[in-house]
Amino acid sequence: MSRIAYVNGRFLRHSYATVHIEDRGYQFADGVYEVIVVYNGMMIDEVMHLDRLDCSLRELCIRQPVSRAALRSIIREIIRLNKIKCGLIYLQVTRGVAKREHPFPNKAQPSIVLTAKPITMPSQKTIEAGVKVITIEDIRWKRRDIKSLALLPNIIGRQKAKEQGAFEAWQVDENGKITEGTSSNAWIVTQSGALITRTANHDILNGTTRLSILKLAKRLGIKYTERSFSIEEAKAAREAFISSATTFVTPVTQIDDVLIGDGRAGILSLGLRGSYIEYANQQGGTI
Ligand code: PLP
């Protein structure tokens, strides 16, 4: 089956889907994106993703390319055309095509592109083994709350992780505190059992999964604190995990050369993953 993409009003075969060479996304990374997961035929947290897209666009003064209602229909159509049951929707909006000059163009029409692809969920065995993360300096700009296309520091960090046999890289600020992963939020469970994740401000992307986990924790009576934590505190933690739309809750069992807890996924992390999957399965009727 051929993949279908959506580009500025048209559904096209993936291999024929192109944008102009003077699109500002291509030349300046002048745009934003979202990744929405479809799980067992249901979109997870669609509204939160679309709200965050609106925020990112507003912060960068990029016009909405289409109305919310139209966008929801396009998303459903791309899921249908690509027959996605478990997969992800990539949605990108840029300031549009214009002569290459740094200031915003007066009249550019924002460009919108959507693609979809199936994903395979990791086995329970993989989840129970957990993943390794490395720590790297956070060299990004100061508006990480905007889901910008400009991902060079993130991809360099992720490449370093790959070269060191790790799944993710946790970025560390000038005070030795962990901000977040290159495409996920960072969490620890302290030796006294407290669930900790960094406060969402300009320093991190406020993950949709992060927000859902906080809601679930509250519902389950799990105490949590939103605050920064250092590399040392993370390495001494009882448990650690990452969260993102595509990884849900994924236990971290090694940070650099240090094993976390007993080197196996922690009970709270596994419990939260289970609750998150239950939550995802309850989003019936959203497509
Ligand atoms: N932090 C960064 C830098 C990300 O790129 C992402 C997701 O791509 C996240 C956190 C997690 O966000 P979400 O849970 O909405 O996927």
From TrEMBL:
CDD domains: D-AAT_like
EC number: 2.6.1.42
Enzyme class of the recorded protein, top EC level: transferase
InterPro entries assigned: Aminotrans_IV, Aminotransferase-like, BCAT-like_C, BCAT-like_N, Class-IV_PLP-Dep_Aminotrnsfr
Cofactor: pyridoxal 5'-phosphate
UniProt pathway annotation: Amino-acid biosynthesis; L-leucine biosynthesis; L-leucine from 3-methyl-2-oxobutanoate: step 4/4; Amino-acid biosynthesis; L-isoleucine biosynthesis; L-isoleucine from 2-oxobutanoate: step 4/4; Amino-acid biosynthesis; L-valine biosynthesis; L-valine from pyruvate: step 4/4
Catalytic activity: L-leucine + 2-oxoglutarate = 4-methyl-2-oxopentanoate + L-glutamate; L-valine + 2-oxoglutarate = 3-methyl-2-oxobutanoate + L-glutamate; L-isoleucine + 2-oxoglutarate = (S)-3-methyl-2-oxopentanoate + L-glutamate
Entry GO MF terms: branched-chain-amino-acid transaminase activity
Keyword Amino-acid biosynthesis recorded: yes
Annotated keywords: Amino-acid biosynthesis, Branched-chain amino acid biosynthesis, Pyridoxal phosphate
GO cellular component, one term: cytosol
Gene3D superfamilies to which the protein is assigned, alphabetical: 3.30.470.10, D-amino Acid Aminotransferase, subunit A, domain 2
Keyword set includes Amino-acid biosynthesis: yes
Pfam families according to UniProt: Aminotran_4
GO biological process: amino acid biosynthetic process; branched-chain amino acid biosynthetic process
NCBIfam families xrefs: PRK06680.1
Family: Belongs to the class-IV pyridoxal-phosphate-dependent aminotransferase family.
Cited function: Acts on leucine, isoleucine and valine.
Protein's name according to its UniProt entry: Probable branched-chain-amino-acid aminotransferase
Organism: Candidatus Endolissoclinum faulkneri L5
Gene name tied to this protein: dat
